[in-house]
Amino acid sequence: MEVLSVASEVYPLVKTGGLADVAGALPLALKQHGVSVRTLMPGYPAVMRAINNPKVVGGFNDLLGAKADVLAVEHQGLDLLVLDAPALFDRPGGPYLDTNGKDHADNWLRFAALSKAGALIAQDGIGGWRPDIVHVHDWQAAMVPAYMRFSDAREVPSLITIHNIAFQGQYGAEIFPDLDLPPHAFGIDGVEYFGGVGYLKAGLQASWAISTVSPSYAEEILTPEFGMGLEGLLSHRADDLHGIVNGIDATVWDPATDSNLRANYTATSLKNRAANKIALAERFGLDRDRAPLFCVVSRLTWQKGMDLLAEAVDDLVDAGAKLAILGSGDAALEQAFQAAAARHPGRVSLVTGYDEPLSHLMQAGSDAIVIPSRFEPCGLTQLYGLRYGCVPIVARTGGLNDTVIDASHAGLAAGAATGVAFGPITAMNLRRALRRAVTLYGEPKTWTALQKQGMKTDVSWTKSAALYASLYKTLLAKKGS
Questions:
Q1: Number of domains observed in the structure of the chain
Q2: Same domain as 151, residue 289
């Protein structure tokens, strides 16, 4: 089975969030199920620098006004199709933001062009290769099924995965004439959304099937609280909606072999984690003592519940714990954590930005990771935490709810508990969860049991890749019928 995946970011070439991890790991996991994936992605400067000996396998003289080549290349086991369109992607800044942290003004054009290219490959193939199925990710690639629907590629099965429904790619109606779609595509059954153009809405409308990244989130987005205005469309298509929890690349994230750690370890040598805790304290300028060390690796935003944690920091320090934070985001939240670090030198520290190697050390050196998200489609940091014996403290929502078993009396008695979960999601309940975690840390046998049970959890792509392969087969059977 041949699958064309279309994504705006793919690890290890370019990453701003969990989408890249999924787009980079799922194709590798699908190989054992007889599924061959080629991933179409933009040729950002970082991508063009990283790839070696690409081969031009096709191109477009007028891709929504831009000239583009399609380059085939293998990179770290991934079979890539890189859309080399300098006018669209060769520029300073990141994939979505300019050097001032603002959206690129032509993001609507850049990702419509990516989607148009994906639809044309689905329709005509490229370099002698043609996909059986097209699988697209988030709003940046969501127009692929729409372009397919209004072309000769409508008979190719398509699947769209929602990684975060809060990001929808909504633009004014004035862009429609430049999208190279027929006039009737601007309608409720096409790309029109509240009088404008909705990229994610268009993909949800046109794709053969919809998936999202956890069973709980698949249920949540059918409600007004979580559906972000798309709950009506999703409820109409509920029979086509599938919740499949993400996995992680268990070779990249393996404490036994991870080169980013000061000391490697397994579930039978947890004492070796102590060296990583010392290294982490040194990196963050925290006191080297026996106190529990909690960490955060996150965007500092309201969605991630970071305002709730900012309210709870003083209480956490009073309870006897330390806190290391890696992330960036809302200026007010960055300032709040900087102020907390100033109030509690040696106990609280913030490193702004994102640092992949440091994030590995934080999972290996921290005792617990705090994830108080108001909504979380899946979440990956709790999966890394489970893998590394870094006990997750999570809000009961979305994928966090599906992947972490609370250290309740019943959970502990059954030997099934892997973390601490709380809800409803308020600052008070977060403070209670943090204090409960500190208390559990003070019971070494109980805490070690939590760590070992978490490390036993299969957080790889093994089960989820099988579910995706099964879904692909179902779509192909639907085509045949």
A1: 2
A2: no
